[in-house]
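User: For my dataset I need records formatted as: sequence, then structure tokens, nothing else. Please produce one.
Assistant:
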Amino acid sequence: MAKSDKNITYRPPIVTIMGHIDHGKTTLLDKIRSTSVWAKEAGGITQHISAYQAKVQLAQGQTSVITFIDTPGHAAFCQMRTRGVQVTDIVILVISAVDGIMAQTKECIDIIKKANLPFIVAINKIDLPGANLDKVKGQLVELGFTPEDYGGQLACIPVSAKTGEGIPKLLEMVILNAELLELQLEENAPFEGIVIESRVDKNRGPVAVMVVKKGIINIGDTIFYGEAPVKIKAMIDYQGQNIPSAGPSVPVEILGFSQAPLAGGLLTASPVVPNPALSLSVTSKAHTPGQPQLPIILKADVGGTLEAILGCLPDDVLIIASGIGPVTDNDIFLAQTSQAEIFAFNISVPKNVKTLAQNSQVKIFDSKIIYEIIDNIQGQVLKLLEPTINETVLGEAGIKAEFKIEKNRIAGVQVTKGELAKGDQVHLQRAGKIIKDTRIEGIHQAKSVVDKVKMGMDGGMTFKPYVDFKINDVIIAYKSDD
């Protein structure tokens, strides 16, 4: 960014993109990436990582640089989104002009409010039939945020991630907000960086994507992840080019770790006392004494995903060990001695390891879909706590409100997983315990009667036979496996 009259140099703003799943966040990022001046100069981006820089052309003819961070939109990544905010200057909140504000949108807004971050709303999908800008703006007003054209201060920019309409104005608004923040370039400060993502590469070993917050990092430098020293062997930018150094706001992939750090991990110039939350060693969650626990070993492809899954597991899961990378012989031996099942997300299970697992009578459940992992674990916990239950969970919803129409009580629900349909068998769960079984008699959305509601949607439900539900109860839809 340009120098001011006081000769102070400012760094590029670091912008995190947030939003509900399927609202077009990734498409928006890809459109910005493909239309960046640097993308044209470099002949296209060669590497897709979770943080990158774009040089944007402003209407006045100037160019500015913005660093973007992608955060997954799925509900399971709440913790990861929270960590992503630690490095963020400005948030772009993507909301579909068709669907409006939904469950994860509200979750994102809560995170933004807690972090006290400035944010801009990108109302996406304005090219689609059914797009309703006033609906979205009205929902924002209900949540306490008044758009500029309604007399408030919140910038709401209509965009189409598909066609590119509105994106130049959105980027100009980011630059305007960044100028107001006066983000100083702290090149001479001690180095500080934050891990955005990490993984284990079969050829290069542990790799981390990091954004520099302060100072400068160079090839050959020794930095610290907690107390663990990390000598920088290589640095690669988002275009796949090896670079000798990186300064504030620059995203870079670095090699030199002995083990992959977790997303949100702090990298510093000097050693610091390690945070137990960053450990990947043997660990367990809080647990009610006297209740049985399900022992598991969890392996995942990258640190952010591992942490997200761990954060979604119930307290009745005993985590024997967790880590990044393929399932190994040692995992099998540990599972055998602890009578644990291994869950592997988006990673390979070598043939020899599968054979060893079969011979050792160790179960391995692997999937590329995060909710298949979580559903399987939660299903086993349910059977463990309620031995008579032999079923598959179809969906879950939390009861957030109560309405009365004539003499009927209607539960206002928010679906957090899967889907719930009219006629489904359901458990009514309170404080972790199933207290009643019933069926969904009817589902309403606004003034419409619908057959089902999916994850992220709100609705009103009636049950038959009648159940005396309360706010914060959980509805679990299931089918029997007998």
